[in-house]
Every structure is written in structure tokens, then in C-alpha cells.
Design brief:
Elements (H helix, E strand, L loop, with lengths): L3 H15 L14 H6 L1 H12 L10 H16 L2 H15 L3 H9 L5 H28 L2 H15 L1 H9 L22 H15 L1 H26 L4 H23 L1
Helix pairs in contact: 1-3, 3-4, 3-8, 4-7, 5-6, 5-7, 5-12, 7-8, 7-12, 8-10, 8-12, 9-12, 10-11, 11-12
């Protein structure tokens, strides 16, 4: 059995790695990176809690609340996943061969495909979240909207874990994320499983089924696409998958409420 202090250390490392939240972390103790990776959905819970603050201001319109929630989430994470989306779009659509695509993704410059992808995904998120806030608060109350937003960030961070478990890691030499990415073992599965239980408690069985189905479709389609284009995944692909999953979950929540 893994000691509780190791779990706490792994969680803090995950928070520091995937957000800009300044925590004091012990990096000397040897802990397998899979433990921190397993806490990725729980990092999403933290991001969701912080970025939900605009919901407390009733006088703001749903569109303004949605815009601020998205911006706060980006500030908390340092646009970590959005950066992966930009690089993935440039590489997947701009390169003709696997090696070209990987080299483009490694380039820090942003191309036209990346800009288009970011504009499209962020616009969709803003519109969907605005509609979800309007419909959800009017028909089901503030708690439902708040819980749904937490579910968006927790659920979206499950998709990268599924890709890691099923695809091969591909990259060029000198990747910074290589040391942090590894398949989870059975010992880490309960951590992720507990996150799924929390999703059930937050949104209920029916909406969780909607979200699971939507994520499943995205997992199959996006997983097939990146395997065809790259032969597997890298850190940028994982970031892009998280962003696409946020959009898909918002679609599912809006569809369920309708």
C-alpha cells in the first residue's frame, strides 16, 4: 500500500506541473511519474473550482461569466493545454511526413493552422459555456452549472490518460514531456477511478453517460487520426485532446439539459 504522504506529494507535483499554482514541492523524493499523472483529473477539479469564481457575481451576464471562467482557467494553467492545441494543429495540418509534423510541433512559433484551431476551440467553448450557464441556471439552478463546470475540467483530463494507455509515445529528441509521460499501472487506476465516481456524484448518472459516450466517440476518432498522422501521441497531442474534450463535454451537458 502506498503511504498517504506519497499520494499528497504526487498530487502537489501534478498541480505544480500542470498549473501555475505556486506550491512548495519536494522534488528529491523518488516517486514514479505515473502517480502524478494519475492525479491529472484532480488537477482539473482544482482548476474548475478556481475558475468558477465568476459564477458568484449574479449581476454579470452569462456570456461575461463564461468569458471570465475560460480566461481564469487559462491563467491558472498557463494555457498549458491550449499551447498543445496550437502546436498540434500546426504540425498535423502543416507537415507532409511524420518527421515534418513532429518538427513543426516542436517549433515555438505559431502558424496559421494553430491560430485557426485556437480561435475555433475557444469560440466554441465560450458559446457552449454561455448557453450552458443560461439554460442550466434558468432550469436547474446554480449548483448544476457549477457541478457541470467541474465535470468539464475533470472529465476532459481523462482523455489524455486514455490516449497514453492505448497509443505509443512518439517524439523528436530532447522532448521535455517524455520523462513525465508513462502508462499507468493497476496501482494508479483507483486514483483515476475515484475521479470518475466524483463525476457521477457531481452530475448524476444520465449526464455522466452522455459525457462518457461523447468522450468515447472523441477518443476513437481523435485516437485514430493521430495514429494515422503521427503513429502515436506526444505531449502536444495530449494537450490538444484535453481542449477538444472540454468542447465535447460542454456539448454533452447542453444536449442533456435540452
Amino acid at each position: 500500500m502506498v503511504p498517504a504522504d506519497i499520494h499528497w506529494l504526487a498530487f502537489k507535483r501534478a498541480v505544480v506541473t500542470y498549473t501555475r499554482i505556486p506550491l512548495k514541492v519536494d522534488w528529491q523524493t523518488q516517486v514514479a511519474p505515473q502517480w502524478s499523472l494519475a492525479y491529472l483529473p484532480w488537477v482539473g477539479l482544482v482548476v474548475g473550482l478556481i475558475s468558477a469564481l465568476p459564477l458568484l457575481v449574479d449581476s454579470w451576464s452569462e456570456s461575461l461569466q463564461a468569458l471570465l471562467m475560460i480566461l481564469i482557467a487559462m491563467l491558472v494553467t498557463g494555457a498549458f493545454h491550449e499551447d498543445g492545441l496550437l502546436d498540434s494543429a500546426d504540425g498535423l495540418w502543416g507537415g507532409w511526413t511524420v518527421s515534418q509534423r513532429l518538427e513543426i510541433m516542436k517549433d515555438s512559433r505559431v502558424g496559421s493552422f494553430g491560430v485557426l484551431a485556437a480561435w475555433g476551440v475557444l469560440s466554441l467553448k465560450w458559446w457552449l459555456l454561455s448557453e450552458w450557464l443560461r439554460v442550466g441556471q434558468w432550469e436547474q439552478g446554480l449548483w448544476t452549472v457549477f457541478a457541470g463546470w467541474l465535470a468539464v475540467h475533470m472529465g476532459a483530463r481523462l482523455l489524455p490518460l486514455f490516449l497514453i494507455q492505448t497509443l505509443s509515445y512518439v517524439t523528436t529528441e530532447g522532448s521535455k514531456s517524455a520523462a513525465w509521460i508513462s502508462k499507468l499501472s493497476w496501482a494508479q487506476v483507483p486514483i483515476t477511478g475515484a475521479a470518475i465516481v466524483v463525476l457521477l456524484l457531481l452530475t448524476g448518472v444520465i449526464s455522466t453517460i452522455f459525457m462518457a459516450f461523447s468522450l468515447g466517440v472523441l477518443f476513437v476518432v481523435f485516437g485514430w487520426y493521430v495514429k494515422r498522422k503521427l503513429g502515436g501521441y506526444n505531449g502536444d497531442i495530449l494537450g490538444a485532446s484535453e481542449q477538444l474534450a472540454e468542447v465535447v463535454i460542454l456539448f454533452a451537458l447542453l444536449g442533456w439539459s435540452a
